[in-house]
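User: quick one, sequence for these tokens?
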């Protein structure tokens, strides 16, 4: 009688998983080699603590563990251990006081397979230093922190206002329009160009980004990141992500190829022009200013810039519908300080309430609960625990933004977190939505300009209301790598 061995991929994987479960029980993967390693809950065989990954609030359950184990503890995702860092004081000690040791980005497998160490967000070492310096200096040259950027933002805000006015106060869903406005501001820096909101190429471009961000936050990707060698060859959403990213990166390659043909070395119009000049000047071609570094740098700026800012704005207008009194207070301050003129960044220091509301939107929404993991570059002691070189670390930024020692009502939307008793704006040390230390967001000032100008411009022109028949808003987030609101309908009623 012939033995029948199943060659079905799913059956093979299940068999391997069963074997690994037995191995994990026999050899005790959960044991710590170092006696002074942070404690943590006992992991399940093979899966570790993957069962704690929440579909909508990816690391919410893990942050909750800090109540039992303290601000530094260990979890296991699959067979890989991570040290989790919670709370502002502990995050500061890691990212600021031990900046060198915590500056190396450890990248999840799905991202590593796509990025391959290029660009600025997920690169390390000298490549990261060169790309970060270039990005900061070029963004400054093309307007970051200058009036020229304000002009670009206000110009794009006018296009966005026209689009919103076209709905004539009727309910509409604002995701693509908000994405388009923010994307066009970034494109003006990268390409010295803007797209019409209905442009099919532009719409496809943004749809790819939205879909990738959504899929990266799916629990199946957490499983893939835990066992990439097992799932790499099996159909799944990881293949959809890679397919979309290939299309996205090829679009960027084609764009900068056209840019190269039209470039004038004496007239550097945008970031890509400047990069290509640097590429020609570099003595060893391809070392840092390579084509792939350019592609992924542009990709990083699009992903980080468009997704985070537009998501924050969408949270902002959702919150304004919920709290109409707060919306009215902002509008009163706009009328008092700006009137009907275009908002400028110089207005912000005269608008403490509006500034506080924008900060509170960022804090309350907490759109990046935990950034990419870090890998310890040298042995370090944190809160009495010994973390050896190579330790993988998860930084829970959301835990700082909801730290009860710094925010009176951490789970509520409360602009007074950033106001004193006399109504003056006050900074809060635990406000670190852009992270802290050496790997803080390169586009922080860029994003702050966009958030203030777009938010005040739209509230100057419209009052945002719930659609007829809708009694309340839904603050539960959508599935995704970033913590975005679920799609919602909104009515923008002209104020004049």
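Assistant:
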């Amino acid at each position: 009688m012939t033995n029948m061995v199943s060659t079905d991929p799913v059956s093979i994987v299940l068999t391997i998983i069963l074997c690994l479960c037995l191995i994990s029980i026999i050899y005790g993967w959960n044991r710590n080699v170092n006696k002074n390693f942070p404690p943590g809950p006992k992991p399940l065989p093979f899966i570790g603590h993957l069962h704690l990954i929440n579909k909508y609030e990816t690391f919410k359950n893990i942050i909750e563990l800090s109540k039992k184990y303290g601000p530094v503890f260990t979890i296991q995702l699959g067979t890989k251990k991570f040290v989790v860092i919670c709370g502002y004081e502990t995050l500061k000690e890691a990212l600021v006081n031990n900046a060198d040791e915590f500056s190396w980005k450890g990248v999840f497998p799905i991202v590593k397979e796509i990025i391959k160490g290029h660009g600025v967000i997920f690169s390390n070492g000298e490549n990261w230093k060169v790309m970060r310096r270039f990005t900061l200096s070029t963004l400054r040259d093309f307007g970051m922190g200058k009036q020229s950027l304000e002009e670009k933002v206000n110009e794009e805000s006018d296009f966005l206002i026209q689009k919103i006015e076209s709905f004539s106060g009727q309910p509409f869903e604002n995701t693509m329009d908000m994405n388009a406005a923010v994307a066009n501001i970034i494109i003006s820096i990268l390409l010295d160009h803007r797209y019409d909101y209905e442009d099919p190429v532009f719409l496809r471009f943004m749809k790819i980004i939205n879909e990738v961000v959504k899929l990266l936050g799916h629990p199946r990707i957490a499983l893939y990141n835990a066992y990439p060698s097992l799932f790499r060859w099996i159909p799944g959403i990881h293949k959809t992500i890679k397919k979309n990213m290939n299309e996205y990166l090829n679009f960027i390659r084609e764009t900068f190829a056209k840019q190269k043909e039209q470039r004038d070395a004496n007239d550097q119009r945008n970031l890509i022009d400047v990069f290509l000049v640097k590429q020609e000047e570099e003595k060893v071609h391809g070392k840092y200013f390579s084509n792939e570094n350019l592609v992924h740098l542009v990709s990083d700026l699009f992903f980080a810039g468009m997704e985070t800012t537009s998501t924050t704005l969408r949270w902002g207008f959702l919150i304004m519908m919920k709290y109409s009194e707060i919306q009215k207070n902002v509008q009163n301050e706009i009328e008092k300080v700006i009137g009907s003129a275009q908002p400028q960044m110089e207005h912000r220091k005269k608008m403490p309430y509006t500034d506080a509301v924008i900060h509170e939107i960022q804090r309350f929404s907490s759109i990046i609960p935990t950034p990419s993991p870090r890998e310890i570059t040298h042995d370090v002691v944190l809160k009495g625990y010994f973390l050896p070189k190579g330790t993988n670390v998860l930084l829970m930024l959301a835990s700082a933004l909801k730290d009860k020692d710094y925010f009176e009502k951490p789970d509520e939307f409360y602009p007074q977190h950033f106001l004193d008793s006399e109504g003056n704006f006050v900074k809060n040390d635990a406000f670190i939505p852009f992270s802290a230390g050496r790997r803080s967001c390169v586009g922080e000032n860029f994003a702050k300009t966009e958030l203030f100008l777009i938010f005040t411009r739209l509230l100057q022109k419209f009052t945002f209301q719930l659609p007829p028949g809708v009694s309340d808003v839904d603050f539960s987030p959508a599935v995704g790598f970033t913590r975005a609101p679920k799609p919602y309908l909104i009515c923008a009623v002209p104020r004049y």
